[in-house]
Amino acid sequence: xxxxxxxxxxxxxxxxxxxxxxxxxxxxxxxxxxxxxxxxxxxxxxxxxxxxxxxxxxxxxxxxxxxxxxxxxxxxxxxxxxxxxxxxxxxxxxxxxxxxxxxxxxxxxxxxxxxxxxxxxxxxxxxxxxxxxxxxxxxxxxxxxxxxxxxxxxxxxxxxxxxxxxxxxxxxxxxxxxxxxxxxxxxxxxxxxxxxxxxxxxxxxxxxxxxxxxxxxxxxxxxxxxxxxxxxxxxxxxxxxxxxxxxxxxxxxxxxxxxxxxxxxxxxxxxxxxxxxxxxxxxxxxxxxxxxxxxxxxxxxxxxxxxxxxxxxxxxxxxxxxxxxxxxxxxxxxxxxxxxxxxxxxxxxxxxxxxxxxxxxxxxxxxxxxxxxxxxxxxxxxxxxxxxxxxxxxxxxxxxxxxxxxxxxxx
Length: 411
Known about the structure:
alpha+beta; Arc Repressor Mutant, subunit A; 18 helices; about 55% helix
């Protein structure tokens, strides 16, 4: 490798893309194309970066398997940043195997970190943890060590393990400072702010208050019966004092009833109010009341280990078996397309196909929602066709992806 390529590579490793371009801007050989692509990616021109990296991969000969594999990893990172989540994961896995077979452990580890980050974006936490467990961070340079710790922290936050997240962020901060890359240090600080920003609201009959992520963790570990409107589950103490989680993610009517009863606890809720909340009916007739009795019976069955639903003269009331209090956990701001806005609030441009993959919804459903949000002035798009991307500036106090439900196994 000649001196110009070496100098450009060192500049990129130090987070200086302009310095790297000064060395290779006028060259069109394969190594220079690859370095120019990485430099353009660091500068934010992802379209040009993708084209350069692909050109470099084609320019490397068939015997240069390691160089081609590194280009695949670089293209995968560009795809991840540009939220092209449909990028072929098998190509990245093949590139990682090639790098490991040739002893390039650093770039192989980087490829595995990219796999984990993709799993996180689409809510596949189990796969993210399993993949991360296969990575030994000990031999990684400081920049990659910081990235690894950021991934550890992200998983811990989604799992509501705030102590683990804080420890990982502290290690990431130390590694980023050793790497001396300002952009990486800024990314760590941005991730740290999440732990000091309200992640949810606590709602009871008498009050409403914001909660930090560690307060959410403490609440879900307490003896309270918690109706979680972020993930559409009910947490409580079941038999033998074990914490029990009942999912109502696919039963919206039952969840609406559970939430209405929980918000009124320990008082009861009139039948007409329950009909309005569960069936969105303005006026309750006898058919609505009959259906309400059926749905309350179903709710009583699914919550039998945690609580009973008793009939009163004017309606129904929730009666927990062991919990001393009943609360509702909700997003900081609730609206119809809150989950979608939570993803867009990361400040990155998303395609509708990537949002559909992350949300576990059809692309047409996502497109309709985006059009509605755009009409309301809450999101904006640029480009057209397949290149169209959607984004919105971060909204202070708005919901984050941390408490969004993960895709169900059959999704």
